[in-house]
């Protein structure tokens, strides 16, 4: 599996959202937009239940680390979440699978990681970018780093334990660091 990238252009971020909506579904565009704002791993993003949200705060236990994460929801995320909840008041999961509704006695399930991966990959092919489910998390980290230049802050947001891992994860290369030294003159 090819390594996916952070999306570095804000215009491309918007284009991906638009293409996901028109080529796949509003639900896929919502996953992209909420995922960008929460910086969660896809397994944790898809597992969000409406009961995990209290006003403007999301509380989850990360599946990979088992750690409890509390995330304040920004206005964009809240707007999308409220719209989804109004449109689907009977849903348990934020991104609930519609296929599961066909099985009357089956419990509700979230959308599958595979379905999201396929949709993202197809848009990535269309725009010539290695796009996957981790792209949302990497993109959030990249843009936070670009706006703050505070790798410690990015590490805490992504809940990483090493600066080197975080820099590699968000796609910051030695060339980027060298450029920062050249451009920032005091």
SSE layout and pairing:
Layout: H1 10-23, H2 26-38, H3 42-46, E1 53-54, E2 57-61, E3 68-72, H4 75-87, H5 113-127, H6 135-148, H7 151-158, H8 163-170, H9 174-183
Antiparallel strand pairs: 1-2, 2-3
Helix pairs in contact: 1-2, 1-5, 2-4, 2-6, 6-7
Organism: Photobacterium gaetbulicola Gung47
GO molecular function: DNA binding
Pfam family, one: Phage_integrase
What does this molecule look like?
Pfam families: Phage_integrase. Residues 2-182 form the Tyr recombinase domain. This is Phage integrase family protein. With 186 residues, the chain is mostly helical. The protein has a single domain (10-183), classed as Intergrase catalytic core (hpI Integrase, Chain A), CATH 1.10.443. The chain contains nine helices and three strands. The longest helix is centred in the middle third of the chain and has 15 residues, at 113-127. The mean pLDDT is 91.
Q: Which strands sit side by side, in order, in the main sheet?
A: 1-2-3
What is the CATH homology-level superfamily?
Intergrase catalytic core
- Rough shape? globular
**Poorly predicted runs of 5 or more residues:** none
Query: Can you identify the CATH class?
Result: Mainly Alpha
What is the count of structural domains? 1
Strand content: 5-15%
Most strands sheet: 3 strands, antiparallel
N- to C-terminal distance: 43 Å
- Helix residue percentage: 40-55%
H/E series, N to C? Answer: HHHEEEHHHHHH
Tell me the radius of gyration: 17 Å
Per DSSP, the total helix count is 9
According to CATH, the fold-level topology is hpI Integrase, Chain A
Second CATH tier, the architecture: Orthogonal Bundle
User: Would you count the extended β strands for me?
Assistant: 3
